[in-house]
Amino acid sequence: MEAATAVAAPIPAADAAAKALEKKLLDLELPPFPAPAKKAAAKVVAAAPKKKLAGGAGGYVLEDVPHLTDYLPNLPSFPNPLQNHPAYSVVKQYFVNADDTVAKKIVVHKGSARGTHFRRAGPRQRVFFQPDEVSAAIVTCGGLCPGLNTVIRELVCGLHDMYGVTSVVGIEGGYRGFYARNTVELTPRSVNGIHKRGGTVLGTSRGGQDTGKIVDSIQDRGINQVYIIGGDGTQKGAATIHAEVQRRGLKCAVVGVPKTIDNDIAVIDRSFGFDTAVEEAQRAINAAHVEAESAENGVGVVKLMGRNSGFIAMYATLASRDVDLCLIPESPFYLEGKGGLLEFAEKRLRENGHMVIVVAEGAGQDVIARSMRLADAHDASGNKVLLDVGLWLCAKIKDHFKKKANFPITLKYIDPTYMIRAVPSNASDNVYCSLLAHSAIHGAMAGYTGFTVAPVNGRHAYIPFYRITEKQNKVVITDRMWARVLCSTNQPCFLSTEDVEKAGQDDEEPIVPLVEGENSLVKAPPLLANAGDGAALCNGAA
Ligand SMILES: Nc1ncnc2c1ncn2[C@@H]1O[C@H](COP(=O)(O)OP(=O)(O)OP(=O)(O)O)[C@@H](O)[C@H]1O
Ligand SMILES: O=P(O)(O)OC[C@H]1O[C@](O)(CO)[C@@H](O)[C@@H]1O
Ligand SMILES: [Mg+2]
C-alpha cells in the first residue's frame, strides 16, 4: 500500500535553505488526524485541511493528497485490472512507481532545497475499488469553458474502457443538482460525440453549494467516486465535500478536475479550454484590426474574459501581434495626463493611422467604480459582478478625441466574451481533457481522494485541494512574459514603483529593480485624475 506517511519525517537538511524550508513546512502542520468528530451542525463548515507532508533528503518535501485508508485503515486493495488490459499489459512502465513525484519548482539553483513535490498521477499496481463496486458521479459547476464535454466523455469512457466500471451518473445543473434534481445515467454510448459540442451536457450553475445536502445525496445514492469539474470556487466546494465525506467515514473518493477559462487556478500549468479561448479571441482581434486599418484613425477595441487574471488578453495579444495596447486586471492604468492611455492613443494614431486595444474584463475596475460611485454587486457564488470596462473605455476615448480639433476617429467595439467560451475545445485541449480525465480516474481507483488533478511542469500530478484554492493564479507583471507583451505592443507600462512593490508582495522571489533608483518606473501617477461621470456600464445584473 503506497499511501504516504501522514507526518513530516525529519529532513537531513542539505543546507540552510533546506532547513528553512523544512521549518516553514513543519510550522504549517496541523493537529494530528483524525480530528475529533463534531456533532453534525445545521450548516457544514469546512474543517481546516490536514496537510500530509513527508520529507526527504536535500530539502525534498512531498505535499501528499489524502487516501481513503487514512480514515478507513482496513480497506482491502486489489490488483489493478489494467494489468490484464491489452493496452496496458505490455510493459511495467505504464504504471506509476509508488514513490514517483513531480517537482513544483523546476528552476533551481546549485545548493537550493529540492522543495515541494506532488504525487505523480497515473495507474497504480493496486486499486481500492473493484469495478462492479464503483458508483461514480460527475458534476460541472461555474461558468462554461471549452472542453467540459470532453472531460465528461473521457471520464465515462475511461471508467468503462480501462476499469470496466458501468455505473456512472451525471449530476445536472451544478452543485444544487445533487439535492434538487434526479441524476442522469451516463454510458459510453450516451456521451459519444459530446466532445464536439460546446457547453456542458450536464448543465452548470453558480451558488447552491449546500455541503450537508450534497453529502446526504452522495450517501443516499451510494456514490463512491465523485468527479467535480469546476474553477477555484468549485474546488473550494469540493474541499468542503471531501472534508464532510471524511468526517462521516464514507468510502468515497472526491476528485477535482480544474476548469477555468481565465486560467486563474494556482500551481497548475494551465487550465483546459484556455488554448481554445485564446485561439477564438484571435478572430475578434483580427476583425478589430481589419476594421481599424480600413478607417481613418480607426480604433478597434476588443473586450476579453478575465475576471481577476488577464491571461487570455495577454496570450491573445502576444499571439496576434496586431495589438497596440493590452490592459489586464493585474496592471493598473490611467487615462489622462503625461504617460496616460489617451496620450498614447493619440501618438499611435498619428504614427500608424489606426490602433487595436485588447482589454480584459477585470481591468481598471477600481477606476471605473470610483468614477461612477457604484456599490459592489456579487453573483450567486459570491464573485464580484464586473463593470463594463469595454464600454467605459470606448466612451472615454470618444470623448477625448471629440474635444480635439481635426482629429476624427472611427471606433469599433467588439465584445466576444461569451463567444470564446461557448465553443467546442480545439484539438490540443481535447487531448489535454482526455489526459485529465484518465489521471483523475487512476487516482480515484487507487484510493486517493481530496485532490485536484493537473499538469505541473508538464507532468500530471495529484494536488491537495488547499494548494489549489489558497490563492488565484494571476499574471505576474514582474515576470518576463508581461515584459514580452509590453515589448510586442510598445505600450507604456503605466506602472509606478508602488505598483511593482505591491505586485511583488505575492511573489516567492523578492522584486529587485534593475538599476536601483534609476529604472524607468515613475512615482504613482494620479490614477483618478480621469475619474469623471461615465454612463451606467454595469455588466449584467447581480
Ligand atoms: N468558498 C466556497 N466554498 C464552497 N463552495 C463554493 C465556494 N466558492 C464557490 N463555491 C461554489 O462553487 C460553485 C462554482 O463557483 P463559481 O461560480 O465561483 O465558479 P468557479 O468554480 O470558480 O468557476 P469559474 O470562475 O471558472 O466560472 C458554485 O456552486 C459556488 O456556490
Ligand atoms: O457566466 P457568468 O456568470 O456570466 O460569469 C462570467 C465570468 O465567468 C468567467 O468566464 C469565468 O470565471 C469569467 O471570465 C467571467 O467574468
Ligand atoms: Mg472562479
TrEMBL record:
Keywords: Allosteric enzyme, ATP-binding, Cytoplasm, Glycolysis, Kinase, Magnesium, Metal-binding, Nucleotide-binding, Transferase. One of its GO terms (biological process) is fructose 6-phosphate metabolic process. This is ATP-dependent 6-phosphofructokinase. GO terms for cellular component: cytoplasm. The record marks 233 as: Important for substrate specificity. One of its GO terms (molecular function) is metal ion binding. NCBIfam families: PRK06830.1 (NF005301). Catalyzes the phosphorylation of D-fructose 6-phosphate to fructose 1,6-bisphosphate by ATP, the first committing step of glycolysis. Allosterically activated by AMP. PANTHER family: ATP-DEPENDENT 6-PHOSPHOFRUCTOKINASE 1. Mg(2+) binds at residue 232. Its EC number is 2.7.1.11. It is found in: Cytoplasm. HAMAP family: Phosphofructokinase_II_X (MF_01981). Substrate binds at residues 260-262, 305-307, 361, 418-421. The keyword Glycosyltransferase does not apply. Homotetramer. Its cofactor is Mg(2+). Residues 136-442 form the Phosphofructokinase domain. Belongs to the phosphofructokinase type A (PFKA) family. PPi-dependent PFK group II subfamily. Atypical ATP-dependent clade 'X' sub-subfamily. ATP binds at residues 143, 206-207, 231-234. It holds the Pfam family PFK. Pathway: Carbohydrate degradation; glycolysis; D-glyceraldehyde 3-phosphate and glycerone phosphate from D-glucose: step 3/4. The lineage of its organism: Eukaryota, Viridiplantae, Streptophyta, Embryophyta, Tracheophyta. It comes from Oryza barthii.
